[in-house]
Amino acid sequence: MKQLLVFIKKEFYHVFRDRRTLLIMFGLPIVQIILFGFALSSEVKNIHLVIADYSKDVKSQKLINKIMTSEYLLVEQVNLNYQEIEQEFKRGEVKGALIIPVNFSSDLLHSGKSQIQVITDGSDPNISKTITNYLTAIIVDFQQQEALSDQVPALLSIQPEVRMLFNEEGNGSLNFIPGVMALILMIICTALTSVSVVKEKEMGTMEVLLVSPFKPVFVLIAKAIPYLLLSLANFTLILLLAVFVLDVEVRGSLLLLYLESTLFIITCLSLGLLISNVTNSQQTALLISLMGMMLPTLIFTGFIMPLENMPKIFQVISNFIPSRWYYLAVKSVMLKGLGFSYVWKETLVLTGMTVGLLSIALKKFKVRL
Amino acid sequence: MDQEKVIICKNLTKRFGDFTAVNEISFDITKGEIFGFLGANGAGKTTAMRILCGLSFPTSGEATVAGYDVYKQQEQIKKNIGYMSQKFSLYENLTILENIEFFGGVYGLERKEIKRRTEKLIDTLGLQKEAKKMVGELPLGWKQKLAFSVAIFHQPKIVFLDEPTGGVDPVTRRQFWDMIYEAAASGITIFVTTHYMDEAEYCNRISVMVDGKVEALDSPRNLKEKHQVTTMDEVFYLLARGAKRSDN
Which SMART domains match (chain B) (predicted)? Predict the structure, then answer.
């Protein structure tokens, strides 16, 4: 036990003296959080929109005012004709146009029906859809108000009342926080652990350790424990960034969140140890753990691209990616505030993977000079 | 010198499938002896050394190291031996003191004892100024000497040196051998492999392995007389040229 402590102390020396490792360890989460939180936001804000108001009366003005208060749309109210609107689209600045016809108000008043044209830049389908959704929502809202204040009959007697469960404010950060957690823990645990073991092989110190009375299995444990602790510190950092910088609320039990994370970290460490046992150079280890782990984690975890949209075969493959299960567990616990009874399946899968990976790693651990 | 045998090998054999890496080798090594273990690459030296270090099991034959059986008491063997290889084996980004502390700790020495021995060692090596420097900053010769000191830090009965002076300049090599003599005089048995024949001359006794067998085993002087040559170089050449195996 004392030998183990000596070893762990040594590992900490290694980590804290290696600036590059430290930078990767604690710089990565910060960069990722900022990137995903601010730069790669999936919600679209400040879309340029032009409005051509041919009606020019109180009603149309009311509608336009309503649209202008939206923080998502940047309205440039210019009265352009069709050709000019087309030119604007071609120049690319403007992503959407709303055209209110001359007889908008009178039609509405007399027949209770009126048409409005929404044109969007279809070359960017995501933004197109977003604009359509925003405008539709605003117009429906407008109708309701008008129906109350005037005698205009409400077209829709059924009002859809939309709620985004677990994320009422529509905070876009929510979804990717568990994803970033999975990604970072995966990269750091797997890559750093594998490199640190292979380094000993390259330096020749592994031989000395194997010849010493220190049990080979203890070498693996001693390597894993510092990274487990560092990863937990890292996880805490991500959590703090999420809560204080991105206003994400932790709904579920913090303890359960930490337990799930510890389990996932152990899974990753096992993977790292396995990689280090089958490779002999730091480069190979790093390449396998970065390329081999990062891409699958990004794709198959489901936080960037929804898994449901993938071909069946990819969905099957995703079951073998540990981060996918961790992501689900974190989402349930952190965002939905669910208890263990809802994440037992994920926990079981991760435990199974860990046991599997660890036993292969131990088996592959060669005791040789 | 008492005649206590610290390594005894009897018909030690190791096979990998059809390949016999070590073929019925037998020798005894006395306490405090400097035993040169020579052989061309691929002759089976490393395999034999692995068995004696408690890292692999022989296929047949018997061997005891420091009185412990290589089949049953590997753990005990490991506690009683030191090891140093050609590949430099200290941590470059730890200081000299931290390295000593670490390896002392791995061998289960008490903290107080580590401190006491460290002070003595630093004194002997004259490294007071460098003690808190990173090992990576030391010249190679110093590193090798330090590595040797660390290998015998826990006062093992036997120390295995696997080509310890590879890539070291002649002056440092000479100093290194002075350290080996000192260790041997204090009762530590030295088991050393080398490709430098001048170093072979420094050994008390030498074994030359060819194709998994021990072809010759005697003092350098007797070997030279027996083959009627003047240098160990020639002895080695005469014995090893018949080898069928080479580096694979």
Answer: AAA
Interhelix angle for A254-278 vs A322-330, to 10°?
170
Q: Which CATH superfamily is domain A47-149 in?
A: abc type-2 transporter like domain (3.40.1710.10)
| Closest to A220 in 3D by CA, of A351, A24, A367, A356 | A367
ipTM for the whole predicted complex goes beyond 0.90: no
8 A C-beta contact, residue A20 and residue A60: no
As a whole number of angstroms, the distance between CA A303 and CA B241 comes to 66
What is the chain A residue with the closest CA to B75? A213
Residue A156: predicted pLDDT: 45
All domains of chain B, ordered by start, with CATH?
33-57+72-240 (3.40.50.300)
Give the residues of chain B that fall short of pLDDT 50: 1, 248
pLDDT digits (tens, 9 = 90+) for A253-309: 999 999 999 999 999 999 998 888 888 888 888 888 888 888 888 888 877 777 777
Q: Are strands A96-100 and A47-53 parallel, antiparallel or unpaired?
A: parallel
Using CB atoms within 10 Å of the CB of residue B206, give its burial: 0 to 12 exposed, 13 to 18 middle, 19+ buried. buried
**Closest-CA residue to A369 (of B168, B92, B21, B239):** B21
> Could you say which of A14, A204, A213 has the minimum Cβ distance to residue B85?
A204
CA-based nearest residue in chain B for residue A218: B106
Contact B49 A369 (CB under 8 A): yes
Chain A interface, best mutation among B74, B89, B112, by max A CB count within 10 A: B89
Which CA distances in Å does A163 have to A102, A166, A169, B204?
Answer: 35, 9, 9, 88
A233-243 pLDDT per residue, tens: 989 998 998 88
Domain ranges of chain A: 2-40+170-364, 47-149
What is the structure's pLDDT at A369? Answer: 39
Facing A2 at nearest CB: one of B85, B105, B160: B105
Task: Write the secondary structure of B145-156 as one string of H (helix), E (strand) and C (coil).
Answer: HHHHHHHCCCCC
How many contacts, defined by CB atoms under 8 Å, are there between A and B?
A: 82
Which residue out of A211, A215, A366, A367 would a mutagenesis test of the B interface target, given it has the greatest number of B Cβ atoms within 10 Å?
A211
- Decide if pLDDT at A2 tops 90: no
Q: How far apart are CA B203 and CA B220, in angstroms?
A: 7
Interface of B with A (CB under 8 A): 46, 49-50, 53-56, 75, 78-79, 81, 83-94, 98, 101-103, 105-108, 151, 160, 162
Question: pLDDT: is A101 or B188 the higher one?
Answer: B188
Chain B residues touching residue A18 (CB < 8 angstroms): 93
B88 and A211: CB-CB below 8 Å? Answer: no
Angle at B41 between CA B35 and CA B47, to 5 degrees: 65
